[in-house]
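Annex B. Sample input.
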Amino acid sequence: MSRVYDTRPHGTQFSHAELPATRECHDALPTRLEPPVFLRFGVERSTRRILRPSDALPAFPRMSVDLRFFEPLDPARYDSRRMDGLATLRYLALPFHTASLLLVVLFSVLLRLALHVGLLGLPALLIIASWFLKYAFLLLDHAAQGRPGAPVLSVEDANPLGETRPLLYGMVVGVFYMATGALEEFGSPGLVSALRLLGLLALPAIVAAHAISGSFAAALNPATVVSVARRLGSAYLVILCVALACGWAGRAIVLDGGHLAFLLRIALLMLLWLALFAVLGGAIHVRRVELRFEPEHSPEKRARRDERDRERERAHFLDQVFAEFRAGARGNPFAAIHRRANQSPDPLAEYLWIHDRVATWLNPKLSSRVAQEVLPLLLASNRNSEALRVARSQLQADEHFRPLASDSLLRLAEFARDAGDRPLARALLSDFDRHYPHDPMATRAKRLATELAR
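Annex B, continued. Sample output.
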């Protein structure tokens, strides 16, 4: 909400008609993401058409997603995928962070010991394997959310009732394998192989949809799977290539890695598995805009947070300026504004922001002084339409307002004439001799005023 200041002395009475018009200002933060919508789909039986996602509902961080599967993608946004595929490859380094490496080393040793003792080590083998699979999904979420470093497996994460995705996907893969195997009695083996290959190709999209939406049922929706794969774009092809490479490397380690130590082979297989999940999570983060997924950490969120901090700091500065201005210190407020604008990376943008705020004050003197600094900068930057806007609004607030230099005034008058705003041009040129006595531009100003009077 923009501030409206009253610069009159304390106790001054004024009518409602004298109050300046206020406007509601929504948070104009730079955002590329649309409001999160929870995935809900329906099928209208009468027409057999897929319905679009319904009304927005509050969502948890993992559910902050809006996948509008059946509307065309924006070509300008969708073309941004050209480098996203390669950007996902940098997530291959995620399993080599210290936390992940320590976990791989520890679990490799524990698995080796469990295998060494035979059947007695079977419970420990199952527990360690479940912890490792849970950690893989934690790594996926960690990469998708854009969190720094690598995750650490906590006691809560190791809870058997906590992370259930490894069990769910194990059941899905098992059921799918048995269901396709049952088709061998009715179809050719080639059809069964094709279906299983299609299931393998779709599995990364299913896992990604589950990580994005938080809904296992939505992840099994074929329309969801197809849309996620389509929106991942070239990154999905990279995921499949990484999966193929990891599978080939894992096969080589298992079948042809007899010369390697057994402990080392276990560790390498774990790293390959974690690399696959890291790349999948990284692809989700890289393609977050196309997926309409809002992670915990992203450049967009950092930009919005920085902008909020900047707005708070600006509001505090403006409060101080208003206090000095209302106290009657006419020079000090503008000196603070001038010093702040010169210290800013973009003085013109800072002047414009300050002018738009102080222009809402009842006393126009400070806004007129700021406008006198803004206009030459706008004209020098060839931002003539903005210069006319500032001059027009300032003249409406203060009919005695004029730019500091006569050449700036004449340029504004000529621009206003060329733009068809002859009243503004005449208002600027009125009383030229009084505002700029003995100015060498007086003859040119009179000639232009005569032309506008016709």
